[in-house]
Amino acid sequence: MMLLAIILLPMIGAAVPFMTERMGRTLCAYSAAIGPLIALGLLVSSAPTIFGGEVLYSQTSWLPSLGLNLNLRLDGLSLMFGFLIVGIGLLVILYARYYLAQRDSLAKLYALLQLFMMAMLGIVMSDNLMLLIVFWEITSLVSFLLIGYWSNQSDARKGARMALAVTGAGGLCLIAGALLIERIVGSFELGAIFAAGDEIRAHSSYPVILILVLLGAFTKSAQFPFQFWLPHAMSAPTPVSAYLHSATMVKAGVFLLARMYPALAGTEWWFYLVTFTGMATMLFGAYNALFKHDLKGLLAYSTISHLGLITMLFGFGTQLAVVAGIFHIINHATFKASLFMAAGIIDHETGTRDMRKINGMWKYMPHTALLAMVAALAMAGVPLLNGFLSKEMFFSEALHLESMGMFSWIFPLLATLAGVFSVAYSVRFIHDVFFNGEPIDLPKFPPHEPPRYMIVPVEVLVGLCLLVGIVPNLTVAPFLEAASLAVLGEQMPEYHIAIWHGVNLPLIMSMVAMAGGLIMYSQRTGLFAFYERKFRHDEKIVFESRVQFSVRVAQRFTDFIQNNSLQRYMALLIATAVAAIGYALWTMPQLLGPVAISDIEPVSLLGAVILIIGAFGTVLLHHNRLAALLLLSVVGLIVSLIFVRYSAPDLALTQLSVEVVTIVLLMLALYFMPQLTPNESGNKRVARDILLAGAAGIGMGLITLAILTQPFSSISDYYLANSVSGGGGANVVNVILVDFRGFDTLGEITVLAIAAVGIYAMLNGLHLPLPQADGEGRRWDKEPHPPILAVMARILLPLALMVSMFIFLRGHNAPGGGFIAGLVTSVALILQYVASGTAWMQQRLRWRYRRVAVSGVLIATLTGIGSWVFGYPFLTSTFSHIHWPVVGDFELASAMAFDIGVYITVVGATMLILAHLGKLAQSSHSPRPATSKPYSSPELTKGED
Amino acid sequence: MEILMATVIAVLTSCGVYLLLRGRTFPIILGLTLLTYGVNLFIFISGRLNPGSSTIIGVGEQYADPLPQALVLTAIVISFAMTAFVLVLALRARAELGNDHVDGRNSVEDVKS
Asked: What's the distance, Cα to Cα, between the start and end of chain B in Å?
C-alpha cells in the first residue's frame, strides 16, 4: 500500500494547486509541495530496509486477464531514482514559484509537474513491464504538455510536437519489444523476465527485441540519431527543463537500460549497439555544446553528451561500468539541475539567454555566479566535485575494455576527446557569462540577484555536488550500492570511491582533458567561425519538412483509397476480403476433409443448370433491366427448390413468398428508373471486375467444398431433444425462432420495422420524374387495372388469408409460422394493390402500416416482458393443451403470442414499404396533361400515412 | 452433389460480386440479391446436405440440422428489408442527384481504373 501511496500522492497533489491558486502564489507552491513531501517521507522511511538489501513489493490486480497488474517494487534502483525524482521535483516547485511570470498559471505548471512526477515514479517502481510502459507513455504525453506550456509560442508548440513524435515512436517500439519478451517469458512481471534472461538472450528473436527496447530507451534519452528533439524542448519554461532534462524524462531512457540490464545485457549485440550509440551521442553532444550561444542550448547539448556517456557505460557491460553509470546518473542530475536553474535565473534577470550579450555577471550577481561556477566545474569533472569521481571511473573503465582487441585504444582516446570538449564548454559557460568584459545591450539592465528563495534550490544542489565530491562514502555510497545491487543481481564488484587514487592513467586523462579544454576554449574565435561555416543547420526545419513530406505521402495514399467513388471502395473491400481469405485457403494443409463426395443426381443437375443460366443471364442482360429482373426471379425460384430438396420446407416457403414480394418491389422501383443501364465500363474495368468476381466465387466455392467434406457435428442436438418438451412444438425451426432464440428474433423484427420506418422517411417528400414511356418508347397504359385480374384477386383474397392463418397456426408443429404467414398475407394484400390500385385499397383498408409494424414489435416485446410477471427471465415461454368443443385438443403456447408479434411486424413492414412505393407510382397515372409537369406533385407525399 | 452445390454458390457469388461492382444502382441491387442467395445457401449448407430428412419431431427417421435453417429464415426476411431499403435509397438518390450513378455523377470519366 505504501508503494502505491508514493505514486498516488503526486497524482492527488496535481489537483491541489488549482484549488489553492486563488489564495496567492506562495500558498499555491506550498500546497503543491505537500504531496511530494509526504512521498519523500515515505521513501526516506523505507530507505533503511532497502539499504539492508531487501526489496519491497506491492501487488494489486488490475487487468489480470491481460497479464497487466498494478505490481510495484521498490529496490535500490527505484529508491535512488525515487529520491532524484521527488527531491529535485520539490526543488523545482520552489524554484518555479519565483520563475514564472505573474500572467502564467502556476497551478497548471504544478499540476503537470506532479503528474509527470507520478509517471516517473511509476516507471521506476513498476514491477510489471506493461505497467512500466503505461507510465512511460504518460511521461511522453505530459512532457508534451510541459514543453508546450507556453502554448501561444510557435517554438514551444513545434518543440513539444517534435518531442512527442520522437518519444512516442520510441514508445511504440518499446511496446512491441515488451510483447515479444512476453511471448518468450510468458509474463510481463519483471521478476520472471529477469529470471528468464538467459532464455531471452538465447532466443532467435533476441536481436529484434533488443533493438526495439533500445529504440525506446534511445529516443527517450535523446541518443544519436534521435538527439534532435532535446534542444528544441528548451522552449519550455526553465523549471521544466531543469526537471525533465536532469533528473527525469531523459533519465527514463537510461533507467530502462539499467532496468532491462539483467534480462538483455551481456551479449555482443548489446555491447556494440549500446556502446557505439552512447559514444556517438557523447561526442556529438559535447562537440555541439561548445558552439551554442544560447545558454540553455549549451546545457541541452551537454545533457545529450552526458546521457551518451551513461549509455556508453551501460554498454561496456562490466560490473564496474554499471556502478559508474549509476553514479553518473546521480551526479549529472544534481549538477545539471542546478545549472539549468542558474541559467533560468540569469535569463530571468537579464531578459536574454544569448551568451554573446551576457557577460561579466560576476559583478552583478556574485552569489548566483559562485553557485553556477561550482556546478559547471562539476560538469567539467574537476576534482573535489562529484562529476570528477564518476568521470574518473568512466576513464578507468574505458581503459580496461578489451572487447575490441587491438582497437581497444579507441575508447580511452575518444573518452578523452569528449572530456576535452566537456571542459571547453564548461569553461565557456563560466568565462563567457560571468567574466569576459561588460554585458552588451541586455533587455533588462542592470541585472541583480534573484529573490532569496529562488537561489535556495541551487544552493541545495550545489551543496550536494560538493558533499558527494568530497565525502562520497558518507553520502552517496549506500544509494549507489543498493542501486547497483538491483541491477547486477547478487554479487557486487569490488570498488572503491576515493578522491585520490594516486597518479594513474585516468588521472592523466583528466589532466589532458583539462589542459586540452582550456586550449580549445582559448582558440574559440576560429572554431566558432569554422562551425558557423560548416555545421549550422536547424533540425526543426528538417523535421518539419519531413513531417510535411509524410503528410503528403499519406494524403496521396488516402486519395488513392478514398477517391469519392463507391465503386473504388467496393473493389478495394472485395479485393481485401479475397486476399485475406485466399491467403487462409492457400496456407491450409489440406482443403478437402475426409467425407466422400456423393454422386450428382440428374434432376438436381437440371435445377443447377437453370440456376446458373439464370444467374449468368442476369449479369449478361443487366443493361436491359426488366429482362435481368425476370431472370433473377428464376434464380430465386430455384433457390427455394433447393431448400425443398434438402429438407427445409420453412425456408422454401419463406424464400418463395419473399421472392414474390421482392420482385414486385423491384418492378415498382424500376418504373421510376431508367429502363436501360448505359454501357460505361471500359474493358480494363470489366476485366478487373471479372477477375475480382471470379476470385470471390472460386473462394466461396472452395470453402463450401471444404465445409461439406468435413465430418459433421452440430450443437443442434440440444434443440432437437428439447423442442417438444421445452418449447412445446414439433417444428424445431419455428421453436428455435420463437422460443430458444426468441431474443434474436425480437432483434430481427425490430430491424425489419426500423428498415420500414426508414423507407417511409425516405419516401416522404420524394419527387421523382415520372416516366411517360418504357425503355423502348412505348407509352404506359393509362388504365392499368385489368378487370379480370381485379376480380380474380378479390376472390383470391379470403382464400389467401385463410391459407396464411392456417400456416400461422400450424407453424409451431409443422412448416409455417409467423414469418411465412406474414409474407403470405402481404402477398395477398399486394395483389389487391396491383389489381385494383392504391386508391381503391385506401378506401377499404384504412390501416396505418407504420403503426401495424410497430405494434407487432410491441406485442412481441410485451410477450417477453410477460414472463417477468411470473418471475421468469425475459421471453421464457410456457405452453399447455386445452380442449375445444369441436376442434379437439389444441395446444396453446405463450410463444404463439410472440409469433403473432412477428406476424404483425412482417405484414406491417412489408405493406408499409410496398404500399408507399406503390402510391408513388399510382399517382403518376392520375389524369394530368402529359407535357405540363415533369415532376410529381407534392400531394402524393402528404396522403394518409 | 457437394461439387454441384459448391458450383452453384460460386456462380451466385461471382455474378453477385460482378454486379455489385457496376456503377448504376439497379444492377447493384440485382447483384446484392444474387449475393444474398449465395450467402443464404452457404449458411444453409453448414448444416450439410440432408435430402429426405425433416426438422419436425416425430416425422421421418432422420433429422436435418434446424439451426442453420432458423438462421437463414431470418436472413431471408432481413435481406428483403435491406433490399427494399437500398432500393428506396436508390430512388431517393436519383431524385436528389438527377441520375442513378452510385457516385452521384452522370459521366463516364471514372471508367479509367
From this structure: 39
